[in-house]
Amino acid sequence: PPFPVYLDGWVTRGFGRGSKDLGCPTANLPDSSIAPYAETLSTGVYFGFARVLDQRSATRSSTTSAFPTSSSSNDSKNEHDGVFPMVMSIGWNPFYNNDTRTAEVHVLHTYPSDFYGKQLRVVMLGFIRPEYNYGSMDALIADINTDKLVALNSVSSPNPSASSTTTETTAAA
Ligand code: ADP
Ligand code: MG
């Protein structure tokens, strides 16, 4: 597809498959976020930038009454603020008989807390690799770590898409 591709949506709860145990929490975007790109985005791993917005979805606004506070005063400060590199996967969701794509975003930043229900805005800048099946957890973790390095190197490259194939050199950098 023609990059950049912009996605945003409310971060939804996943299956809790223990991605935090793997050191790689992935924030799920709702199906509606990628639906417009169903034809153009192939499955695989992408890189770019992400930002968590200081807003909450529906639940909070229904309780705010006649005295709405500005969004920034709901929390003492926006502890999720900032634009950071991200690496994301687009894949088929087995839960829906593989007819729904999922988009999961790992932000290359250590946040002080979770941000379920907040809005995540993403700009995809390039493709890293297709989706693979793994015979072992170790192989999966190794590839995830390489993906993170490729993403970091790619976003700091003057020509982002050019570095996506140089896995070995970027991993060593
Ligand atoms: P789930 O199955 O609900 O997606 P994960 O173990 O994948 O659970 O954790 C994802 C959640 O972790 C995100 O929704 C977000 O609230 C939180 N989180 C904290 N740090 C990050 C990060 N750096 N990147 C993505 N999500 C993060
Ligand atoms: Mg996840």
Short description:
This protein has 173 residues and is α+β, with helices and mostly antiparallel strands. It has five helices and six strands, in the order E-E-H-E-H-H-E-E-E-H-H. It has one domain (5-62, 71-158): Riboflavin kinase-like (Elongation Factor Tu (Ef-tu), domain 3), CATH 2.40.30.
Summarize the SSE layout with pairings.
Elements: E1 5-10, E2 27-29, H1 31-34, E3 44-56, H2 59-63, H3 71-74, E4 83-92, E5 101-107, E6 118-129, H4 137-155, H5 167-172
Antiparallel strand pairs: 1-6, 2-5, 3-4, 3-6, 4-5
Residues 14, 19, 26, 28, 104 line the site of magnesium ion.
Describe, in plain words, how this protein is organized in 3D.
The chain is of the alpha+beta class. The chain has a single domain (5-62, 71-158), classed as Riboflavin kinase-like (Elongation Factor Tu (Ef-tu), domain 3), CATH 2.40.30.30. 22% of the residues lie in helices and 29% in strands. It is built from five helices and six strands; from the N terminus they run E-E-H-E-H-H-E-E-E-H-H. The protein has a six-stranded antiparallel sheet with strand order 1-6-3-4-5-2. Magnesium ion (MG) is lined by residues 14, 19, 26, 28, 104.
